[in-house]
Task: structure prediction
Amino acid sequence: MRGIEQVYALAADMGGMGFISGNHARILHNNALINLHTLHAAVLNGVSRYFYSSSACVYPEYRQLDEDVVPLREEDAFPAAPQDAYGWEKLVTELLCGYYAADHEIETRVLRFHNVYGPLGTYEGGREKAPAALCRKIALVEDGGEIEVWGDGNQTRSFCYVDDCVEGIMRTMRSSCRDPLNMGTDHLVSIDGLAHIILELSGKRGVRIRHVPGPQGVRGRNSDNSRLVATLGWQPQTTLREGLAITYGWIREKVCGW
Result:
């Protein structure tokens, strides 16, 4: 970090729910070290501004028990009760950013990502998240075939396209806001609903969804963008269908060759 003015801390040992649910110690240990070392190195080397990529996983499980969830506001993170180790290490590092900014000459900025997806992301191997996993499964299934979805498919999320996330990062780094902000859309959709959108985009016919046991995370999660809009005068612009069309096309080419 010598001679660097701005640091964008985007690294994490991370994956989808299958990975998160079986690697709590690894996630907390590795990511805590990544976060502690990068932030401290930034201070030691005189970095002026530090961006930390946090997560909606910081929000308490008790606020995410229903599919029709109330959109989460930034202040809802406390009293703290994240579901997984990943959420705890993100929340602790948010606090660490605040303390370093108060104790040292460094400006910190924090966004809480809500399910970022898009091309060039992981789509196989066990670390992929729901949009990429469903895109891969649907690209490979034949007409009249079947795909698997973990749980009953009624669990809900909002999804943010990667281009919007990058735009949000740049706007946040230019802003004067030191407090964490949500970085997501406020469009709530079920996992089955997500699968149906991708199926429509694929043109596949007669594909059935089979629900199987598997980790699901919280029951419902959505983003309240009020503070984001008030602070940046902006919020994500890409619709879920637009983002999924690009993502599905890229993953289909990777797994099918066309």
Notes: The chain has a mean pLDDT of 97.
